[in-house]
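Hi all, long-time lurker, first post. I run a small reading group and we've been trying to get comfortable going from sequence to structure in the token notation. Rather than ask abstract questions, I figured I'd post a concrete chain and ask someone more experienced to write out its structure so we can walk through it together at our next meeting. Sequence below, copied exactly:
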Amino acid sequence: MEKTARRDFILGLVFFGAIAMLLYYTIVLTGFSFSDKIYMTAYFPNANGLKEGDAVLVAGRPTGTVRAVEFLDNRPEDRRIAVRMEFVEAPTLHEGYFLRIAEFTVLGGRVVQIEPGPFLNPKIPADAELIGTVESSALAQFSKLLEENDEDITSIVQNLRTTTEDLAHGSGVLGSLLHDEQMGKKLKATVVDFSELISDLKHGKGTLGALLTNEETKEQVLGIVEDSANLVADLSTIVQDARNGQGLLGAMLNDPILREESTSLVHNLEETAEKLNLVITDATTGKGLLGTIIADEQIAADAQSFLADLSEVTRRLKDGEGSLGRLLSEDQAYEELLMALKSLNGQLEDAREAQPITTFTQLLFGSF
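-- Answer (accepted) --
Happy to help. Here is the structure in token form:
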């Protein structure tokens, strides 16, 4: 009895499991529903492997199912395949929509992709004929790419073959590296030196390392670069001004008269320098007054004595010694001198005014 009950239990599990699987495939995978269905028909140039039961994606979301794929031989080539799609809730299409038969995965399977179009665009009428396109598979696109670039691919394969043969025979740098141990050692030493250089730079050794790690050195270099840039900019401005005739240099470059006068000035300076050179030459050889003063020790001594006496007189005047010194340094002496000069000037005026009367008296009494 226990064995019979266990066997009946297992058979019941298998039976109800099969029923559950059947319901799953019927309801879930086939989109079975008791609600009313909405159908939409679209036309494509070819089916590209699409079959009944494939999914319909609206904006990437599974929304419907393909219920029929029919060939219509009386239709134009761009719409000879009619695809009938079933929806629980049909999408609203707007101008700018597109329908496309595309691959579901790289391994196979097809779906119908629907992009409803921008929401703000006008709606497509319900009785409008819907035209879709077909997307080629990835393998087909890859095959087409190979066909279009057949010559280039052949050339690449030949180059790879030549390269591998050169490597096998030790030709070229890579071939030498594979077969020449000495070159390999040199390359290894170069890599080691380069690693040491990078390490020194990280630790701030050398000029370049200081630039990378020392902020003060970096700021100095940046300052030099900035000053150089400013200098170049200033020189560019000067050159531009000169081209435009601005400033002295620009006037000299653009004004013929000023250019001639500048040239004449340079010639005059050259002549003056030559004459000054002659004077210095004559002086060193004892010619002329300057040469005599330089060559004759007595005249040089007299000139030195005269300069000393002149310095002493200047000092005494500054210190207020003597009549002239007191006149320069004392206000009272200066005022007395002014008063004396005024008095003398007055007497001279009186004498000048009295001169005609004196002359007349002399003529009158002298005639008797």
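A couple of things your group might point at:
The chain is about 65% helix and 15% strand.
Residues 296-351 form one domain.
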